[in-house]
């Protein structure tokens, strides 16, 4: 794992939170994208070298809808940039982590993504990201 790729924040309304984070960072999101397979609409902000992903649920079965119901708005996951996602899945599986999808899936912002179960990572949902070249 090379660095934090982004921090994912679950929000009730992307429209309202876009305005809030635009005020916070002094610049608008550089991108908005829907990822149908995850049941989310996302927006991305850069703040210096750091990237923030806002996530709104698009249906009641979305992981974001469930999270908002249980925990409310807030940090939902931390994503780490990896060089070779398949190699990293094998390494982490051998280390005993619970991999939620061993086959990487298409995420937002041109990434392949894999998730680790938060029960095995001190309650933090971890996402691995590999840029699609
Ligand atoms: C936009 C695409 C992509 C990107 O490119 O960046 C994304 O970021 S997509 C983000 C949304 N997608 C995901 O989160 C996929 C991975 N998540 C899952 O598969 C599930 O959410 C889960 C983690 C397996 C939980 O699902 P489930 O068991 O069905 O939900 P429960 O509500 O019953 O939760 C069980 C248990 O887990 C705790 N939990 C759930 N989510 C989180 C979380 N984000 N962080 C920490 N803990 C979490 C939840 O509180 C429950 O705990 P207990 O109540 O103590 O059992
Ligand atoms: Co993410």
Detailed description of the structure:
By secondary structure, this protein is α+β, with helices and mostly antiparallel strands. It has a single domain (3-131), classed as Roll (2,3-Dihydroxybiphenyl 1,2-Dioxygenase, domain 1), CATH 3.10.180.10. It contains three helices and eight strands. It has helices at 14-25, 63-71, 85-94; strands at residues 3-10, 31-35, 40-47, 50-57, 74-81, 105-106, 111-116, 126-131. Strands 2-3-4-1-5-8-7-6 form an eight-stranded mixed sheet. A hairpin with a 2-residue loop joins strand 3 (40-47) and strand 4 (50-57). The longest helix has 12 residues, at 14-25. The protein starts with a strand and ends with a strand. Residues 6, 8, 53, 77, 79, 127 line the site of cobalt (II) ion.
Strand content: 35-45%
Number of helical regions: 3
* Largest sheet geometry: 8 strands, mixed
Q: Residue ranges: pLDDT <50 for 5 or more in a row?
A: none
When the domains are counted, the total is 1
Based on DSSP secondary structure assignment, what is the total number of beta strands?
A: 8
* Overall CATH architecture: Roll
Which ions and ligands are bound to the chains? ligand LP2KCY5N, cobalt (II) ion
In whole angstroms, how far apart are the ends? 18 Å
- Radius of gyration from the alpha-carbon trace, in angstroms: 14 Å
What is the CATH class designation? Alpha Beta
Strand order of the largest sheet: 2-3-4-1-5-8-7-6
- Please name the fourth-level CATH homologous superfamily: 2,3-Dihydroxybiphenyl 1,2-Dioxygenase, domain 1
Output the helix-strand order. EHEEEHEHEEE
The name of the CATH topology is 2,3-Dihydroxybiphenyl 1,2-Dioxygenase, domain 1
Global geometry: globular
* Helix/strand structural class: alpha+beta
């Amino acid at each position: 794992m090379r660095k934090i790729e982004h921090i994912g924040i679950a929000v009730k309304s992307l429209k309202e939170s876009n305005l809030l984070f635009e005020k916070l960072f002094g610049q608008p999101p550089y991108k908005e994208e829907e990822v149908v397979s995850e049941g989310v609409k996302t927006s991305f902000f850069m703040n210096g070298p750091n990237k923030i992903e806002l996530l709104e649920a698009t249906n009641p079965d979305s992981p974001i809808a469930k999270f908002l119901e249980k925990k409310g708005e807030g940090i939902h996951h931390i994503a780490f940039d990896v060089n070779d996602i398949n190699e990293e899945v094998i390494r982490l599986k051998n280390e005993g982590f619970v991999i939620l999808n061993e086959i990487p899936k298409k995420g937002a912002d041109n990434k392949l993504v894999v998730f680790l179960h938060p029960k095995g990572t001190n309650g933090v949902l971890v996402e691995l990201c590999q840029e699609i070249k």
